[in-house]
Amino acid sequence: MQATVTEIESQAMRLTPEDRALLADHLLASLSPDPSVESAWVEESLNRLAALDSRAVEGIALESALAQARNAIR
């Protein structure tokens, strides 16, 4: 018997936040087999990290970032 998306989602929601993030990363990566997309994301991540390290930009607390994201999708 094949699991439905709803059943898989229910199982995934029982994972730790870290494991859900890893699963989400794997699922998203499977949607774009183009390696140049992954390379672009790595480059962007490194650029953002460098900007944080040099204090060219200021980070915000995770809770604030999540609240902003939730408000943006409402």
Give the helices and strands, then pairings.
Blueprint: H1 5-12, H2 17-31, H3 35-53, H4 62-73
Verbal overview:
With 74 residues, the chain is mainly alpha-helical. The chain has one domain. It is 73% helix and 0% strand. The chain has helices at 5-12, 17-31, 35-53, 62-73. The longest helix is centred in the middle third of the chain and has 19 residues, at 35-53.
Structural Rg:
16 Å
Oligomer designation = single chain
What is the element string, with H for helices and E for strands? HHHH
Q: Work out the strand percent.
A: under 5%
How much helical structure, as a percent, in the residues? over 70%
Structure summarized in a few sentences:
Helix content is 73%, strand content 0%. It has helices at 5-12, 17-31, 35-53, 62-73.
Key words describing this protein structure:
74 residues, mainly alpha
